[in-house]
Write a structure and sequence with these properties.
492 residues, alpha/beta, 6-stranded antiparallel beta sheet, 5-stranded mixed barrel, 33% strand
């Protein structure tokens, strides 16, 4: 176990704003890949946090609660998943996505309020790491170098095992014989073509850029003021006029909207050499993946559960005379006969079938679907809300059927509709129903009717989830036909 020379305060910063379009149809705008439980019982976001528990066993590490930077749309997903693993955190909400440089600057300002120049450990929220202890040990080496001011900013570079064209690369200066704790960075390189990636692999001093950085609050804020002053000024202005909505912190939206969009790499990292900011790379010599495509997910799962024909089957899947396929079924039975080199992902409302070589093209497909206005790009049939979720089971021109689940002690907004009436049937738990001036309790197999235009609310007063079947009828059944009169989640 590594032992640090000094006690170091470390604040993890989890950047949680990605959309993960290459993992459509499981990953969607309202429920992106970092919140999916692709690899086990925890989501990628939860795994990012729980793997840091290894620091608790390291002497001289003072690990603080993480700062999560996310957006308004995902705030309750973040909160629910933090509660599931019993983790406290500061949650900073970006009013609009402006890439990672403004996100990290918000986190640095938040950390500056609470700690005396801590080391920021900047982590993406959607990666998979093979050896947690070795990963944390590598981060500790980088933290020590940053704390001792031997490096202004440390980045982790993954030792490549094959000529990957989907990652950026870091070229570092090093003696090819000696092994060092960290190496000076020469340059960052965009995703190369296959031939160039083969050359990088042969040279031995090129590493995959995994987007993990360590620096102090002071160093980052000073670097931003030198290299991206316009971003630093607007983000600081938005932070100074922030509002608190416990447990969320909201920077001023109007000011933040003026911020120029830029990444950590472009805004600061690639300019460090010209500003005499020493940039060091610490090798991360373990299996790592950003799970950026279905092919990457498939390759990771193969090491865990592939059959003799090199197939990976998730869910209710039956394969015959097929090889080298990845098949993911969310619910129903999916069968393949005589298939080879396919990616098949089946959800309630969308099915993806692609050749394994076309993993990067899924993003292009999703962009085309978005331009055509397809709702499947944005949300699943099952939609999560702060009070629970609903699943649209069936619908036609003048009716819609939903299955609704309300968490214990949670309530929907007090609301009314201009164009639809609703029938509610309780199938599990106890419902407290407000309908106009009347309040009633309903148990399993009991029902009620909500007339068009009447103010109403559904609540769960019990200790177990409440489930109901809702049948809507009317001339218009869109989700925007909701007039919220009172809402404990701050929605208009």
């Amino acid at each position: 176990m590594i032992k640090l020379e000094h006690s170091i305060t470390i604040v993890p910063v989890i950047l949680c704003g990605g959309s993960g379009t290459r993992l459509w149809p499981l990953s969607r705008q309202e429920y992106p890949k970092q919140f999916l439980k692709l690899l086990g019982d925890e989501s990628l976001f939860q795994q990012t946090i729980t793997r840091l528990n290894s620091f608790k066993w390291m002497p001289n590490i003072d690990l603080q609660s993480p700062i999560i930077v996310t957006n308004e749309q995902h705030r309750f997903l973040v909160l629910d998943q933090l509660h599931e693993i019993g983790q406290a955190a500061d949650i900073v909400l970006e009013p609009v996505g402006k890439n990672t440089a403004p996100s990290l600057t918000l986190a640095a300002l938040a950390a500056q309020e609470k700690y005396s120049n801590p080391v920021l450990m900047v982590l993406p929220s959607d990666h998979t790491i093979a050896s947690v202890e070795q990963f944390c040990a590598t981060l500790a080496v980088a933290a020590q170098a940053v704390y001792d001011n031997k490096i202004a900013i440390a980045t982790l570079g993954v030792l490549p095992k094959y000529p990957e064209t989907g990652y950026g690369y870091i070229q570092c200066q090093r003696d090819s014989v000696s092994k060092q704790a960290y190496y000076q960075v020469e340059r960052f390189i965009e995703k190369p073509d296959h031939e160039t990636a083969v050359e990088y692999l042969a040279q031995g001093n090129f590493y995959w850029n995994c987007g993990i950085y360590l620096t102090t609050v002071t160093t980052w804020l000073e670097a931003m003021h030198i290299l991206a002053k316009d971003i630093a000024d607007t983000v600081t202005g938005a932070w100074l006029q922030r509002k608190f909505d416990i447990p969320f912190v909201r920077p001023a939206a109007a000011i933040f909207a003026q911020t120029r969009s830029d990444s950590i790499d472009y805004a600061v990292i690639e300019h460090c050499t010209s500003q005499n900011l020493k940039l060091g790379m610490v090798p991360l010599e373990i299996d790592w993946s950003d799970l950026g495509t279905w092919q990457a997910v498939s390759e990771h799962q193969k090491s865990l559960q592939a059959d003799i024909e090199n197939n990976v089957a998730i869910g209710d899947v039956y394969l015959r005379a097929s090889r080298n396929c990845y098949v993911h079924s969310s619910k129903r039975l999916v069968t393949l006969i005589g298939a080879e080199d396919l990616i098949v992902v089946d959800t309630d409302d969308a099915l993806l079938i692609a050749h394994r070589s076309q993993g990067q093209a899924v993003k292009t497909l999703v962009d085309e679907l978005a331009r055509s206005g397809r709702a499947e790009v944005v949300k699943h049939r099952k939609v999560y809300r702060p009070w629970g979720w609903y699943d649209s089971i069936d619908e036609c021109e003048r009716f819609k059927v939903k299955r609704i689940c309300v968490k214990p002690k949670a309530s929907l907004s007090l609301q009314k509709h201009h164009h639809r009436a609703e029938h509610w049937i309780v199938v599990k738990g106890t419902a407290k129903v407000t309908c106009g001036s009347e309040t009633l309790l309903l148990s399993e197999n009991q029902s009620t009717y909500i007339p068009l235009g009447v103010t109403h609310r559904l609540s769960n007063p019990g200790n177990i989830p409440l489930e109901i079947i809702e049948v809507q009828s009317g001339s218009y059944l869109g989700e925007d036909d909701i007039v919220r009169l009172q809402d404990e989640y701050g929605r208009g």
